[in-house]
Amino acid sequence: MLRNKLGYLLFLIFAGLFAVLYNEYFIGIIFLTAVLLPFVLLGIVIYSSYKIIIKLDSTTMVVGKEEFLNLTIHLKNTSVFPVSRMHLFIQYYNTFSGEVKKENIQVAVDQKSTQNVSCQITSKYCGNMQFEVKSVKLYDYFLIWSVNKKTRQSIQVAVMPETYEIPGDIIIENNTILADSDTYSEYKPGDDPSEVFGVREYREGDKPNRIHWKLSYKQNQLMIKEFSDPIQDAVLVLMEFTCKETQKSRLSIVDGLLDLAISVSYHLLVNEHVHKVSWYDKNYNAVRQFGIHNQTDCLAAMEEILKNQFTTDSRVILSEQSESFPKEIYTHVIYITSILNEEEIYGWVQNHKGTFFYLIYVNDMELNPVSETMKVLIQELKIILFEIDTKNIKESIAAVGNLWLERG
What we know:
Elements: H1 2-22, H2 25-51, E1 52-58, E2 62-64, E3 69-77, E4 83-94, E5 100-109, E6 113-121, E7 127-139, E8 146-149, E9 154-160, E10 184-190, E11 192-201, H3 213-219, E12 223-230, E13 235-239, H4 247-270, E14 275-281, E15 286-292, H5 295-306, H6 317-324, E16 332-337, H7 342-351, E17 356-363, H8 372-380, E18 384-389, H9 393-407
Helix pairs in contact: 1-2, 4-5
């Protein structure tokens, strides 16, 4: 653009020389027009900048990893002047991983018309993708002036983790804790008369004391009350998002942690295990805990997790959980982590004796395998260890379930 200004300045100089040498009325008019034209162009581009309306839109608010996201920028020019050249500076980044990318789009918009600019974007890693129109620059017709237009258009799209199937049921039966549970199954009836699971028609062999007399009278047929089945397990999934690896390795590790979190939660639901998930939320500076009773709860929890940011500080969810919920009792604890803190793990297991402790270690097993010292401690504490290699995550997760199928 500086070259265009210099070129126009030279044109003015030559026009001025001609006006002086020939001293003609017509040439003087041309020179005066050439002098005023840049100011007219500047006024037009400033006016047009106020008459451009920008709106950012997306066809969907939730996508999977590597899926194409159709992002649309709606441009509306309400002025009587066409915009021959406009640059849109787009920035998008993963709020969880922090990976930032930028795009520069050039477009023209006719007078009193609209223009839609579409682009397809994918994300290799899960998290909330934040899209922003950082700035808009409009140019005049001779590319002498440019005007920046302020805009605050942004949109957020959730890139969900990938769910992998875990065969079998990894939860070991435990009848030593929670003999009297006040949580009931949503999927099957039982024999606890304190809670009604549902009502159905009478079948031969049903006990008379289960007849729902009031409803039977209304329906003009015998109706039977089905009692609920109390849930004996108290399962807690602890997600450790502290990561001390390099930026490149950290992205794949955190991505693997999120894949494991949603895969384990869905696995528990499929096997009718109501559970809780906990993680340290950097944004809240506190432990967040969600009860998971169905897929809706699982997705809601994952939505909150994706708003979080992984941390490189020394906070460990094991100690944070104990301080935040000191009175809670669990039958099974599933700890998903990429770091192995021997002191923290030892302290947790010692303070929660009688609880089955599952350690799911997610990392690059070639670079960061489980140390021999840690293996000895795991064996002494009777911890159930699963190693998930981020380079072969699908096979590693499938091996978790296959191991239990072989044991069963």
